[in-house]
Amino acid sequence: MNNGIGEVLITVAEIKHKVSELAQRLTADYEHKELTIIGVLNGSLIFLSDLIRHIPFPVKIDTIRANTYIGASAISKTETDIINNISLNLKDEHVLIVDDILDTGKTLSRIVQVIRGHNPLSIKVCVLLNKEVRREIELVPDYCCFEIENKFVVGYGLDFDNKYRNLPYIAVLENNG
Ligand code: IMP
Ligand code: MG
């Protein structure tokens, strides 16, 4: 055991390969369009910064920050607050939302809804990881680097208690999830 880090699920080389492959797909799909990439903070930080450096045509970048939690009301339901909203104008733009992981789908479905309110030409969702078995709200990522099983993972932007984001690989967190 190494600081609570267990099995390495996805190596540095595997991430590098998939991210450059994804950038090629995005180039084929968006090269001649006006594209705004919106990164979901903080989880997408590392993925976003690597991905955009593989994109060879001009793109605009913005970020959004959201917090999903169980509400305090008697009939508690999940709520998502937008903490920092985007500032770019999305009119006449194609939007690609980039996040670290699609889990229950609550956060990203809310973000899609918020972005839709800005009336862009199109909205697509791009995630590094997809944990399909955990889905509660139907949402299929348009672009995804890796499908993973139901394990709690950290590294390459993904955190536990805000730690481990700086690991260059993706590993299972021991004694959790
Ligand atoms: P959702 O709203 O349940 O889809 O939550 C998505 C958010 O939960 C992600 O952006 C992550 O911050 C967090 N999350 C879900 N699964 C994991 C995991 O395995 N490791 C780290 N964070 C996770
Ligand atoms: Mg996150």
List keywords for this structure.
177 residues, binds magnesium ion, alpha/beta, binds inosinic acid, single chain, 3-stranded antiparallel sheet, globular, 6-stranded mixed sheet
Question: How does this model look, in words?
Answer:
This protein is an alpha/beta fold. It has three helices and nine strands; from the N terminus they run βαβαβββαββββ. The strands form two sheets. A six-stranded mixed beta sheet has the order 4-3-2-5-6-7. Strands 1-9-8 form a three-stranded antiparallel beta sheet, with helices on one face. Helix 1 crosses helix 2. The longest helix has 19 residues. The chain is globular and about 45 Å long. The mean pLDDT is about 95.
The set of bound ligands, ions and cofactors reads: inosinic acid, magnesium ion
Question: Nearest-angstrom radius of gyration?
Answer: 16 Å
Taking pLDDT < 50 over at least 5 consecutive residues as the criterion, the unreliable ranges are none
Give a count of the beta strands, DSSP E runs of length 2 or more.
9
- Helix-strand sequence: EHEHEEEHEEEE
Please give the share of residues in helix.
10-25%
Q: The biggest beta sheet, please?
A: 6 strands, mixed
Class per helix and strand makeup: alpha/beta
Alpha plus pi helix count: 3
- What shape does the CA trace take? globular
- End-to-end separation in angstroms reads 17 Å
Taking all residues together, what is the mean pLDDT?
Answer: 94
Strand content: 25-35%
Q: Order of strands side by side in the largest beta sheet?
A: 4-3-2-5-6-7
